Amino acid sequence: MAGGGTYETDIVGWSEDQAGRLRRLAGAERENDAGIDWPNVIEEIEAVGRSERRAVMSHLAVALRHVLKIYGRPNHPAADHRFEEATAALADMQAAIDPGMGQRLDLERVYDVMRRRVEALTMDGRAPRPLPRVIPLSFEDLRDEDLTPAELLGRVVAARAAEVAASAP
User: Fold this and answer.
1) Engineering a disulfide at 59: which of 78, 90, 92, 145 sits with its beta carbon 3.0 to 4.6 angstroms away?
2) Is the CB of residue 119 less than 8 Å from the CB of residue 127?
3) Is the dihedral of CA 94, 97, 101, 104 positive or negative?
4) pLDDT confidence of 2, banded at 50, 70, 90?
């Protein structure tokens, strides 16, 4: 299939490609209007890809939120529950992700949003300990079935230590 991915391996690319093809077809259709509601058909096809991408980002956000809460308050009684929730969210994310999503996921943005949300929380009447501004996380990392909450937590710890070291005199 030229131009886009396949439905099985790149649902986002497939939906973008199919929507483009439908736009061209709708533009070429003049006198032979078969009563097809082209704008809404195209919108629904595009929505398939957006929905899949949002699902992956949502699962990642949940995993990050729980991991950041664990880091922010490591001895909190809910830490075990948060690890379980992060584990489930990562499994859901990995079930939903496909190879074509790599350039379409804004990992820095989802981390930044979750970091700011966790920083705004007060747990036990106190703010969490400082979180790193960024963590190293790539699309390939997300596709790695061995990615665990412990691995994410390790990245948070390492990123924060690097920030502290960089700001030391």
Assistant:
1) 92
2) yes
3) negative
4) very low
CATH of the domain at 138: 1.20.1220.20
8 A C-beta contact, residue 69 and residue 123: yes
In a domain, 12, yes or no: no
Three-state secondary structure call for residue 125 = coil
Phi, psi values for residue 119, rounded to 5°: -60, -30
The answer to whether residue 93 scores a pLDDT higher than 90 is yes
**19: in domain:** no
Q: Percent of the chain scored above 90 by pLDDT? A: 55
3-state helix, strand, coil in the chain (%, to 5): 70, 0, 30
* The length of the chain, given as a count of residues: 169
C-alpha pair distances (Å), 58 with each of 54, 78, 94, 110, 117: 6, 21, 12, 9, 14
Work out how many domains the chain is built from and give that number: 1
Which helix or strand (DSSP H or E) is residue 17 part of? helix 11-28
Using pLDDT thresholds of 50, 70 and 90, give the confidence band for residue 149.
very high
